[in-house]
Structure formats: structure tokens, C-alpha cells
Design goal:
The protein is an alpha+beta fold and about 375 residues long. It folds into three domains: about 10-35 and about 70-135 and about 335-370, ATPase, nucleotide binding domain (Nucleotidyltransferase, domain 5, 2-Layer Sandwich); about 150-180 and about 270-330, ATPase, nucleotide binding domain (Nucleotidyltransferase, domain 5, 2-Layer Sandwich), CATH 3.30.420.40; about 180-265, ATPase, substrate binding domain, subdomain 4 (Actin, Chain A, domain 4, Alpha-Beta Complex). The chain contains 13 helices and 19 strands. It has helices spanning about 55-60, 80-90, 110-125, 135-145, 180-195, 200-215, 250-260, 270-280, 285-290, 305-315, 335-345, 350, 355-360; strands at about 10-15, 15-20, 30-35, 35-40, 50-55, 65-70, 70, 75, 100-105, 130-135, 150-155, 160-165, 170, 175, 235-240, 245, 295, 325-330, 355. The strands form five sheets. It has a six-stranded mixed β-sheet with strand order 3-2-1-9-10-19, with helices on both faces. Helix 4 (about 135-145) packs across helix 11 (about 335-345). The longest helix has 14 residues, at about 80-90. The structure holds adenosine-5'-triphosphate (ATP) and magnesium ion. Adenosine-5'-triphosphate (ATP) binds near residues 14, 299, 300, 303 and 333.
Length: about 375
């Protein structure tokens, strides 16, 4: 078994934020947006050596930056930008890259080339002594203290359903839908534009995300497209430039697309049906058990009314002889990170880390046999 003196660094690189910190801590000590900013008008910002802004500096100067999101739908699309973000993590936490192993979370169906590229950066550029790539679904379940259950994780870029039995994900039943928080924000923007508001800059889009988080909610039941819309309590949001945006039915219409994607013309099942399909794809003798152990994680599930609607819809559409039980995990925006911290305290952890020596000996082929 590889013994590492220092606790591993855990990095959960999500489409909206990167959560990072040392295993053993109760929460990630660093959460930074997963965007990289470049000055819109370089002469208006202080002169500096790099032309990119990341982390807290990017947040501070956000209104003057053009933003790029290098992680799209949970998958890295721009390696140079992501490397910049990961370097920032080490410097913000005052860690040297070769001092401790690293646990990296990965989305389901992460392509092998992405695993290879991740390993190349951590082993060859950062010189880490060991690395573990772990499924976000399995990690999230560990955070709940269980080893059997179905994890529904709905974040910024993806909605992932991972049925797990005694610590192993059931590969044929894992599902992922590329419809999540980002799409709700974009739908809210469309609804606001229809009411005459213009939202176009990267900063405006980040503000729309805040409006969604603070003012939107999930309708308790499916919205009938043929009946007049129920009136939401009016609300408003004041933009930093003083503009006041009034909000009415947009408050619940934005999130409805997650439950009834056909409203957008998308040929996708709603989130509740997605979960049912996934459980129905497991062995028949496991299903009852899984329906009674549904765990909900990810930032989008924090929206008011989300749990109630999801549970109601699943109860309506699942087989009649099953008892549906659902847990809204504590600290569910950090569930994946926390699960990695739990995993690192188990006796099997040392054996699952790929050491640098093994990487040098076996090369990339390790990642082709790696489980989901
Ligand atoms: N209170 C809230 N209400 C609604 N949405 C919220 C709330 N808080 C956070 N969110 C949304 O949750 C999403 C971020 O969740 P999370 O951190 O789980 O995603 P991520 O890990 O960055 O992305 P992914 O896992 O999809 O790659 C964003 O879309 C954000 O707007
Ligand atoms: Mg995530």
C-alpha cells in the first residue's frame, strides 16, 4: 500500500465552481468560480503580468471582464484555462503541488482522453505523488454515510443519476442529462428578454444566475400548458446599475423545464422520469431497495420546492408496490467534495490511489480499465 504522509488535496471541478481543500476538513476551504476572465478594456485595469483573471481577483473585477467557462457540462473543454484554475487552487491554499496526493472528481461518462489529459497535468506538470479519479456519484453517496442508494446530482451543467450497490455503481443504469442549473439561468434570461429586458454581457448572465438563486422556485405540480398560468407573487431584483427587474411567473417557469423539458422542445425525459428510468435499469431485486434510498445533491436542488416536486412526481410515476423515500443531503452543494474526504479516511483508500511510479510504468492504459 502506498503511504502518503500528508492528507490528499480534493478538487471537485464543477461547471460553475471549483471546490477544493484538504481531506479531513469539514468543508472545502476554497470555492472559486470555474471561469477565467480577460479584461474587456485592458487599459482600465491595473497593469499585471498575466492577461487572465481567476479566483477571487476575477470575482472582484467581474464587471470589467469577458468570462470563459473552461468546464462545460462537467467536462473540461479548455485545458490551458483549467490548468490556470488548478494552479490558483494550489497557490490560494499555500500548497506545493508535489507534497500530497490529489483526489479529482469526474463526471459520469468522462471520456478516456480527458482522464489521460488530467493525469498528464497532475503527474507531469504538477508532479503529484499520487492521484485518484473518482466518480462524482459515488463520492456524493459517501458523503451521506451510505454505500447503497441512488444519487441524483443536479448542478450547473449536468444532472447525473447514479444507482450504487455496496459501493459499486451499476454501470448500465447510470444516466446523465445535459440539462441543469445553467439551462434554468438561460431560460430565465429568455423569459426576461421576452418582457423587454436586455441581458447580454457575461456579468449580466452571472446576475441572472443570482436572480434565479434568490427569486425563483419550483412549482409544486406540473404546469398545464393549456390552462391560464397561475400568478406568482410579484418580486423584483435591483441590478447593480440601479435597474429594477420585476418578476412574476418567470419565478416558477424558469425551473419548470427541468421537470418538463418538452416545454423547450427537448426530447428528454423530465428529471423525475430520468431517475425512474435509471432505477428500472437495475436488477429487479434491487429496485425496491433503491427506491427507498434516493439521495439528492447538487446546487440546483437547493431551489425552493425542488424536493417536494421531485418526490411527488416520482411517487406518481414509479411502480405502485414500491415505497419511495428521498433524502435531501445536508450541505448538498459540497456533497461530492465531502464524500471524497470520507473516502480518504477508509482503509481501501491507499490502494486505490495511482502512484506516480505506477503511472510512469503503465502509462495511460490504466485509464482505459478504470471503473466508472
Ligand atoms: N439556492 C439556489 N437555488 C437555485 N439554484 C441554485 C441555488 N444555489 C446554487 N444554485 C445553482 O446550482 C448550480 C451549481 O451547483 P453545483 O455547485 O452543484 O454545480 P457544479 O458542481 O459547479 O456543476 P456540475 O456538477 O453540473 O458540473 C448553479 O447553477 C447555481 O446557480
Ligand atoms: Mg458538481
Amino acid at each position: 500500500m502506498e503511504k502518503h504522509k500528508k492528507p490528499p488535496l480534493i478538487i471537485d471541478s464543477g461547471s460553475s465552481t471549483i471546490k477544493a481543500g484538504l481531506a479531513g476538513d469539514k468543508i472545502p476551504s476554497l470555492t472559486i468560480p470555474s471561469f477565467v476572465g480577460r479584461a474587456k478594456f485592458p487599459h482600465t485595469l491595473k497593469k499585471r503580468t498575466s492577461d487572465t483573471y481567476v479566483g477571487f481577483e476575477a470575482e472582484r473585477n467581474i464587471s470589467q471582464l469577458k468570462l470563459r467557462y473552461p468546464i462545460s457540462r462537467g467536462k473540461v473543454e479548455n485545458w490551458a484555462d483549467v490548468e490556470e484554475l488548478w494552479k490558483y487552487v494550489y497557490s490560494a491554499l499555500s500548497l506545493t503541488t508535489n507534497a500530497q496526493p490529489v483526489i479529482i472528481s469526474e463526471t459520469s461518462f468522462n471520456p478516456c482522453e480527458n482522464r489521460e489529459k488530467t493525469a498528464e497535468i497532475f503527474f507531469e506538470t504538477f508532479n503529484v505523488p499520487g492521484m485518484l479519479l473518482a466518480s462524482q456519484g459515488i463520492l456524493s453517496l459517501y458523503s451521506t454515510g451510505s454505500t447503497t442508494g441512488v444519487i441524483l446530482d443536479c448542478g450547473e451543467g449536468t444532472t447525473q443519476i447514479t444507482p450504487i450497490y455496496e459501493g459499486f455503481s451499476i454501470a448500465q443504469a447510470i444516466t446523465r442529462m445535459d440539462l441543469a442549473g445553467k439551462d434554468l439561468t438561460e431560460h430565465l434570461i429568455r423569459l426576461l428578454m421576452r418582457s423587454g429586458y436586455s441581458i447580454s454581457s457575461s456579468h449580466d448572465i452571472e446576475l441572472a444566475r443570482t436572480i434565479k438563486e434568490q427569486k425563483c422556485y419550483v412549482s409544486p405540480a406540473k404546469i398545464d400548458m393549456n390552462s391560464p398560468l397561475e400568478k406568482a407573487l410579484p418580486e423584483s431584483f435591483t441590478m447593480p446599475d440601479g435597474r429594477i427587474i420585476p418578476l412574476a411567473n418567470e419565478r416558477y417557469l424558469a425551473a419548470e423545464i427541468l421537470f418538463t423539458p418538452d416545454r423547450l422542445g427537448l426530447e428528454l425525459p423530465g428529471i423525475s422520469q430520468l431517475l425512474i428510468n435509471s432505477v428500472q435499469n437495475t436488477a429487479i431485486d434491487l429496485r425496491k431497495n433503491l427506491y427507498s434510498k434516493i439521495y439528492v445533491t447538487g446546487g440546483t436542488t437547493l431551489m425552493t420546492g425542488f424536493g417536494q416536486r421531485l418526490l411527488g412526481d416520482i411517487k406518481k410515476a414509479s411502480p405502485k408496490d414500491v415505497k419511495v423515500k428521498m433524502v435531501l443531503a445536508n450541505n448538498r452543494i459540497n456533497a461530492c467534495w465531502l464524500g471524497a474526504s470520507v473516502l480518504s479516511s477508509t482503509s481501501e483508500f491507499g490502494n486505490s490511489v495511482i502512484s506516480r511510479r505506477r503511472y510512469e510504468e503503465e502509462g495511460n492504459r490504466i485509464f482505459y480499465t478504470w471503473p466508472f
